[in-house]
Structure formats: structure tokens, C-alpha cells
Amino acid sequence: MRRLHPALRAAALAAAVLLGACATPPERKPEPAATAPSAAQAAAEAEPERALQRGRLKPMPVRPLSIKTDCRFKDEVGYGGSAMLDVSYSEVRAFAATVDVPKRGSCKFELADFKQVLKEPHVELQARDGCTVRMWEQGEQVTVAFSECAKRCTRGTFEYVWPILVDRTSGQCT
Predict the structure, then answer these.
(1) CB 169, CB 137: distance < 8 Å
(2) What would the pLDDT profile of 76-102 be if each residue is shown by its tens digit?
(3) Which residues pair with 84 in a beta bridge?
(4) Where exactly are the structural domains of the chain?
(5) Which residues neighbour 4 within 8 Å (Cβ) at sequence distance 6 or greater?
(6) Contact at 8 Å (CB) between 111 and 97?
(7) HSE of 26 in the Cβ direction (CA atoms, 13 Å)?
């Protein structure tokens, strides 16, 4: 077998590298997901269970939501609002809320604009414009959260709206 001159060998190698760089790599089929979770994944999934066993966490009850309140709130910078709720066994009988954001504007929510679409694991109201109001129990508090509701607010206000928290025992809201 004949040996190539070193200069020719370098040129052939360079040509092969250049051709290889232009070539399309073969299609790779995605690897099937592993059936067994990784050790880190298994540990992360087991941690809440261990915390429950040690008594640090308590499971949230899945039970019908019942709360009745008519409250107002305002913080030291002027962020405030009101909530009127009457929910019995996850059936919303009455709902109205306002949120006032200083130097931005306000948002208003009325039950007449919404239809109840879910009772468990949380209460959910939806309006035709896409606004969704969700209510759920979290310890001694009931959370009333809003999503996709910019049309119910003064322009640029919704980005500053936080959920309303209602203390179940006192009926106070924040």
C-alpha cells in the first residue's frame, strides 16, 4: 500500500472534516422516558410523605367550601379592597369584590358576570371574557384569586392585583 505525502494527507483530512461539517446529522429518535424515576426525583417525591409522617405538614382537606363575609381592607400604602362572599357547600350564592391599587386604578368583580364551573377541589367562577376567579381553603384562610381579568380593571392595574385572603374565624380580609 502506498503512503501519501504528509501535505496530501493533511489536505485529505481537511477535506474530510469540511465535508463532515456540511453533512446533515442522522435523525435521532427521542429516547423513551425512563420507567424508573431517578434517585433525586424519587427523593423529591418522597419528601412530602416523610414530612406528613413527622407531623410537619398537614394535608389540605378536600371538603366543601363554606364561608360568609363582607369585609374591607387597606394597607399602609393604600392598597385595599373589599369582598362580599356567601359560599355554602361550595355553591356560590353571592360574590362581589373590588381591588384598589394606589396610583394605578381599580378592579371590580360581580357574580352576575360569572358562571360557576367547578366546586371541588376548589370553587371556580368563569366569565365570558376569560376572567377566572378561584376560591380555596388554606388552613384558617380562604383565598380568592383572579386570573386573566385585566378587562375588569382600569388599564394597567391587573398586573398589581394580589389574591384576597379571608380569615375564616374572624371574617376579616387582607
Answers:
(1) no
(2) 999 999 999 999 999 999 999 999 999
(3) 70, 96
(4) 67-167
(5) 12
(6) no
(7) 2
